[in-house]
Amino acid sequence: MSECIFCKIVAGEIPAGVIRVSDRFIAFADVKPVAPGHVLIIPKQHFGTLLDIPDSWGAELLTFTKAVASSLLDKKLGDGFNVVMNNLEPAGQVVPHAHLHLIPRKDGDGLRFVTKV
Ligand code: 5GP
Ligand code: ZN
Questions:
Q1: Pocket of ligand 1 from Cβ distances under 6 Å
Q2: Each residue of 73-104: pLDDT tens digit?
Q3: Looking at residue 112, what is its pLDDT?
Q4: pTM for the complete prediction?
Q5: The CATH number, out of the four listed (3.40.50.1980, 3.30.428.10, 3.40.50.300, 3.40.50.2300), of the domain defined by the range 5-105
Q6: 12 within 8 A of 70, measured Cβ to Cβ
Q7: What is the DSSP secondary structure assignment for residue 63, as one 8-state letter?
Q8: 41 touches 103 (CB < 8 A)
Q9: How far is CA 51 from CA 19, 48, 56, 86, in A?
Q10: Other beta carbons less than 10 A from residue 111's beta carbon
């Protein structure tokens, strides 16, 4: 998708702090982190929402997400983490390229909600 900002990140046309790459997924730093270490995980191919990601990609997505989350914990960016996914506009999805938010959490960090209310 030529106008999709995340497709441009995948193509290297827009810089992003890339954290990890697999065959089908890429993780990079959110440009407006709600907490230090806030990461986005996206499929390299353009899909709109979770519903569009092929079932057969599920195992790779789980493995990839666990690896990124583990590295956030290893780096002491958090003592826990949230995995959040906004799907479609009423749920707060702004960028129409499917993505998971990985948000490191610490006791008493004051974070309450990271999506549309
Ligand atoms: P959504 O509300 O769609 O679930 O979240 C989109 C996320 O993408 C937001 O947290 C926003 O900060 C992030 N974002 C939007 N544009 C860019 C960008 O150009 N680069 C990066 N790294 N993150 C972006
Ligand atoms: Zn895209």
A1: 5, 14, 16, 28-32, 40, 86, 92-95
A2: 999 999 999 999 999 999 999 999 999 999 99
A3: 85
A4: 0.96
A5: 3.30.428.10
A6: no
A7: H
A8: no
A9: 25, 8, 12, 12
A10: 14
- Give residue 1's pLDDT band: very low, low, confident or very high (50, 70, 90): confident
From 38, 97, 99, 101, active-site residue: 99
CA pair distance 12, 10, nearest whole angstrom? 5
88: left (phi over 0), alpha (psi -120 to 50) or beta: left
pLDDT band at 25 (very low <50, low <70, confident <90, very high): very high
Answer whether residue 116 shows pLDDT above 70: no
Residue with tokens 């270490």: 37
Q: How far apart are CA 75 and CA 68, in angstroms?
A: 11
Whether 38 is catalytic = no
How far apart are alpha carbons 89 and 48 in whole angstroms?
Answer: 11
| CA-wise closest residue to 14 among 38, 51, 42 | 42
- Among the bound ligands, the one closest to the CA of 11: 2
Length reported for the chain: 117
